[in-house]
Amino acid sequence: MTGRRERLERLDTGAIRRRSVIPAVLLAGAWLHAGCAPDGGGDGAGAEGGDAAPTEAAHFEFTEVVPGVYHAQGASDLVVGSNAGVVVNEADVLLVDSHISPAAANALVEDLRSITDRPVRYAANTHWHFDHAHGNQVYPPEVEIISHEATRAAIAAGRSNSGRSYELFVGSIPGRIAQMEATLDTLTDEAARAELEATLEGQRTYYAQLQEVVPTPPNTTLSERLTLYRGGREIQFHFFGRAHTEGDVIVYLPDDRVIITGDMLTGGLPYMGDGYVNEWIETLDRVKALDFDWIIPGHGDPYQERERIDHLQAYLRDLWDQSVALHGAGVSPEDAAARIDLTAHADNFGGIAGPGANPVAVLRIFELLDGTAN
Ligand SMILES: [Zn+2]
Questions:
Q1: Which residues, at least 6 apart from 369, have a Cβ–Cβ distance to it below 8 Å?
Q2: Å from CA of 195 to ligand 1 middle
């Protein structure tokens, strides 16, 4: 609960509202039934204004960032991976990102009934990573799943241009489980044992759910831009250039003044091992040219402080420049990662206690400089 309270305190603008919970009877036929009760529309009707508490369902917590636009964050032991954006239109719903497994994606669809009974007709993958796209298979064929064309190709191939694969991302789970089991054998403290047992159980459950994943490519793609007009709402999908991956899409709601960014922006430092670190900086310049008040990131809480984009750009620029210099001096990526000093950014990002950079990020930059991976 502490985590939830912290999130609430950070969302203190008064724009967050609570919706009443819809009776469980409406859970039936949650998918594509047409004809909708007047709840959860883009006009904000039904919102109980002024109450900043999010709606808590079985597995997710829904925070209404602006009327009809929600941030869905995992709130149970179910491993869901990323955030999802939920856009409730006059007659249908758009879900942005499908989480880490079919179990997580189904849980979101069921929990969605706590905020609306309108059918899911659109989904989107902001990028190809497993924690944003491995729930796609739960959507019926009538649901349009939208992504950049490079994201579709990566999901279909199970790997990106950089060579990173789903196997790379999830292949280490059995080893991690074995390691936790070994650690558990050595623990005597009851509280520590209980905590590790809970984590272990979550990982075992997730690993079982992972076996059910059938990577399912989106059925609608864009190369630069696609726009939906749903009721009174305009929904823009933009590709502004490569960044966190080769196919990052920003979902922009111009009237709601919200962007949903995937992992191009997160609550902290995004994963860079599959990224285009120098191009990322320029791509973010194009994102900043949009007119918006709220950022719903791929991980972490929604926020309004645009300067946080500047902070990420400054970090990426510094990381890139130092990497280029050390690469030019013939330093190995491992040694470069130890020598790079990003302590100037410690006020903006947690976990920077001294010199050193993420070796995965530095290796990726060296690949780009060497031309050994796309
Ligand atoms: Zn990602």
A1: 323, 324, 327
A2: 27
pLDDT, tens only, 262-300: 999 999 999 999 999 999 999 999 999 999 999 999 999
* Predicted confidence (pLDDT) per residue in 65-98, tens digit: 999 999 999 998 889 999 999 999 999 999 999 9
Distance 251 CA to ligand 1 centre (A): 15
Q: How far is the CA of 45 from the centre of ligand 1 (A)?
A: 34
Ligand 1 centroid, distance to 324 Cα (angstroms): 24
Q: In angstroms, what is the span from residue 338 Cα to ligand 1's centroid? A: 24
Determine the longest span between alpha carbons in the chain, in angstroms: 66
Question: In terms of CATH architecture, what is 2-168+213-220?
Answer: 4-Layer Sandwich (3.60)
CA gap 261, 250 in Å, rounded: 5
Per-residue pLDDT tens digits for 102-134: 999 999 999 999 999 999 999 999 999 999 999
How many CA atoms are closer than 13 Å to the CA of 370, on its beta-carbon side?
A: 16
Distance (angstroms) between ligand 1 centre and the Cα of 244 equals: 7
Mean pLDDT over all residues of the chain? 87
> Measured on CA atoms in the order 191, 192, 198, 201, is the torsion positive or negative?
negative
